[in-house]
Amino acid sequence: MEIQHALNCLAVLPLTLFLAACESTPRQPDEPFPMSVELRAQAIENIAESLRNSVEIAAGRFPVAPEDGTWEFDDGGWTGGYFAGMLWLMYAETGEQYWREHAEKYTWLLEGYKSNVDMSDIGILYWPSCDLGYSLTHDERMREVGLAGARSMMKRFLPGGGYMQNWGRLGEEDQMGFVIIDCLINLDHLYWAADETGEPSFSQAATSHAERTRVSHVRPDYSSFQVVEFDPATGEMLRGFTKQGYTDESTWSRGQSWGIYGFTRVYKHTREQKFLEAAMSMADWFIERLPPDFVPYWDFCAPGIPNEPRDTSAASMAASAMLELATLVEDPDRANHYRRTAGKILASLTENYLTRDLPGRNDGVLSGGTYFYEIGRSVDQANIWGDFYYLEAMQRWPE
């Protein structure tokens, strides 16, 4: 989803070294980062201020991630839905017409992707924009655009492999076997389409893709590969590796968060216990290895810890996922554990990682995000997806 071109692999170290390097980070389990109504209000106020500034300077473009504190923009890419989604979430939060007007504007700017069969990320563009917008406005045009996009997505489903082609143009043979854990996030849009139309093929494809990801990307200890190569004809796993993590055997923190969030959503749609178990086990692995401030490094096995960059987008996504997970778990103690951990993450992000507390220009809401460490792209900067999940998590926080 984020990077579709091959990079030279880093030298692979023995797996035993990585297992040792990724053991739980020593920290005080009762480290005080209490979430509160006051911190939530502070967060919402800061998000609104930052988002208004982004709207003012965007001029019809979509912010992605800053370099040197200044937003870089594109025409939607894989992240445009997050900007539109933040505007819709602020409209839901406040009811202010300002947010609705701009949310509609940026949602319609994404309409041109609805027939793009060479685009694997229509789902991640449309569920925060068209789907969310439709739920708030009942504008039938958004529903129709969303459904057109879902039908385009379905053309990338490989029945033999049982998954959605993530990379390359439709049918491009040398790209057909690759699936990244990131693309779990696209499945929400297919489930939405199934609910809207009553056509089971949408949900069947989504669940099949999720199952291929569960049995292949998730390791026996519930850490994760970012990328798996499959045999497109059979769905057989050929190898697991990374594009944005430290090495193939390490665990890229945002990939782990994609898994927690994605499997939580799949369980909510399917109620199949195996997806709940995957979400909980991946969350447990993540929580056990958080550093003292509850914000993960860009890779759990990065060699220079504790002097490595963080990834606040992995933190905000995981916090949002854990808050939803807490509503789905039957065991009250375990649900409270996820809720308390999410609160600690959100409190730490609010107390320690807001861009407004930094000198100079700093677009976006959360500092400390890492887009792509190995190529030096937007390291220790904000990014739009991290900001989206921070806002979503704040709205999920029980007041």
Written description of the protein model:
The chain has a domain at 45-75 and 252-399: Glycosyltransferase. It is built from 13 helices and nine strands. The protein has helices spanning 15-21, 37-58, 80-94, 97-108, 122-137, 140-154, 187-197, 200-217, 253-270, 273-288, 312-328, 332-352, 384-396; strands at 62-67, 70-74, 157-158, 163-164, 178-180, 227-230, 237-241, 369-372, 377-381. The strands form four sheets. A three-stranded antiparallel β-sheet has the order 5-6-7, covered by helices on one side. Strands 1-2 form a two-stranded antiparallel ribbon. A two-stranded antiparallel sheet has the order 3-4. Residues 1-21 have low confidence and may be disordered.
Short description:
This protein is mainly alpha-helical.
- Overall pLDDT level: 93
SS class: mainly alpha
Shape: globular
- Biggest sheet architecture: 3 strands, antiparallel
Name of the CATH first level of the domain at 45-75 and 252-399: Mainly Alpha
Gross CATH architecture of the domain at 45-75 and 252-399: Alpha/alpha barrel
Total number of beta strands: 9
How large a portion of the residues is in β-strands, by DSSP E?
5-15%
Portion of residues in helices?
40-55%
Distance between the termini: 34 Å
Q: Spatial order of the strands in the main sheet?
A: 5-6-7
- Low-confidence blocks of residues: 1-21
Q: Examine the coordinates and then state which fold CATH places here, giving the name of the CATH topology of the domain at 45-75 and 252-399.
A: Glycosyltransferase
Radius of gyration: 20 Å
How would you spell out the order of helices and strands? HHEEHHHHEEEHHEEHHHHEEH
Q: Counting H and I runs of at least 4 residues, what is the number of helices?
A: 13
